[in-house]
Amino acid sequence: MSKIELSLASDYVPSWTIVDAIRELFQNALDQEVQSPDNKASWSYENGTFKICNKQSMLTAKTLLLGTSSKDNDSRTIGQFGEGYKIATLVLLRNAKQVTIYNYGLREVWRPRFVKSRRFGTDILTFFIDKECPWTKVPDNDLTIEVTGLTDEEWFEQVVPANLHLQSDVKIEASNEYGEALSATKHAGLVFVNGLYVCKYDPYKFGYNFKPGELKLDRDRKLASDWDLRWLASKFWMNNPRAIEFVEQGLADVSYLSDMTWYSQATKLSDDAFEKFRLVHGSRAVPVTTQEEADKVPAGYKAVIVSSNYKNLITRSSAYEEPEPESDSIDPLDKLQQWFEEIEDLLTDEQQEAFNEIMKELRL
């Protein structure tokens, strides 16, 4: 039996929990599958024991070096920092869980634990590698990581909610090249990457499961900036038929749609928003965001207060024209029509219909 000491004290990453540790194990297994589709990931939980496997993965001693990763610069994967399962193991051991790594592909068993270091005078993470195989038949997986000592409360109340892969009731509102929007109430505001929980962002209406590489994360895979979250969600909805509806509602999920005018989809969205605005409020309607702006709208036009995002989307349409002051030579019937459009919301449907009939007769 050999042993390898890592320069990692037991109190490293003190804020990490069991949930964070198991997330790392899922991340590694799923990343390996992404890089090689034949390297299938699988997992199970029963009676306090969690097992996660990869069909073709093998761990060498080199992988115990911090910073060593096969996923450098691979945007398809979540992990990029080369710490992964080492830190997960440390955190699980610190929380009184037992970790055993069945490195079947190399016919080895790794049993990590904390050992008092003579050199450093403190407990450090140490991997003991047994090269005398205790099994007679190798399973169908080259690698299995087993975690024992979990409680059902830890698993079902903490781990499962943080991992979409363990949930059977995930409701998908929409999906595209950026990921998935989640519509279940319990997922509102939750942000996942490749099914793994990242953070809660309360301004969101929906939850999101973004694809790896789309969202910038810190090393702990927990923090994403407010700007990144709003920008990515806006891109997600840009080509969706409900995008204009969401802009009208002022949802944070589409905060930056009006700023994406260089995208061809956003240009069409602006034109569609302008047409819808005219259809609802009339050809002489002008979008404004405050009463002060409304007071500056020229006579003959109708100011309609909307969100700044919706106003920007409308006014960036190629068909939109800024309102011009009323000309003295305007046709009296046009003046009458403009007056009607200003007060039509105050009239009943019957009164509006009667006025339109009169106007038709006058224009004959």
Helix-strand blueprint:
Elements: E1 2-9, H1 18-35, E2 41-46, E3 49-54, H2 84-94, E4 98-103, E5 108-116, E6 123-130, E7 143-148, H3 152-159, E8 172-176, E9 179-182, E10 190-193, E11 196-200, E12 207-210, H4 226-237, H5 243-249, H6 264-281, E13 285-288, H7 291-295, E14 302-305, H8 308-315, H9 332-343, H10 349-363
Parallel strand pairs: 10-12, 13-14
Antiparallel strand pairs: 1-6, 2-3, 3-7, 4-5, 4-7, 5-6, 8-9, 9-12, 10-11
Helix pairs in contact: 1-2, 6-8
> Helices and strands, in N-to-C order?
EHEEHEEEEHEEEEEHHHEHEHHH
Strand content: 15-25%
Give average pLDDT, whole number: 88
Largest sheet: 7 strands, antiparallel
In the predicted model, the low-confidence regions spanning at least 5 consecutive residues are: 72-82
Descriptive overview:
This protein has 364 residues and is of the alpha+beta class. The chain has helices at 18-35, 84-94, 152-159, 226-237, 243-249, 264-281, 291-295, 308-315, 332-343, 349-363, and strands spanning 2-9, 41-46, 49-54, 98-103, 108-116, 123-130, 143-148, 172-176, 179-182, 190-193, 196-200, 207-210, 285-288, 302-305. α7 (291-295) links the parallel β13 (285-288) and β14.
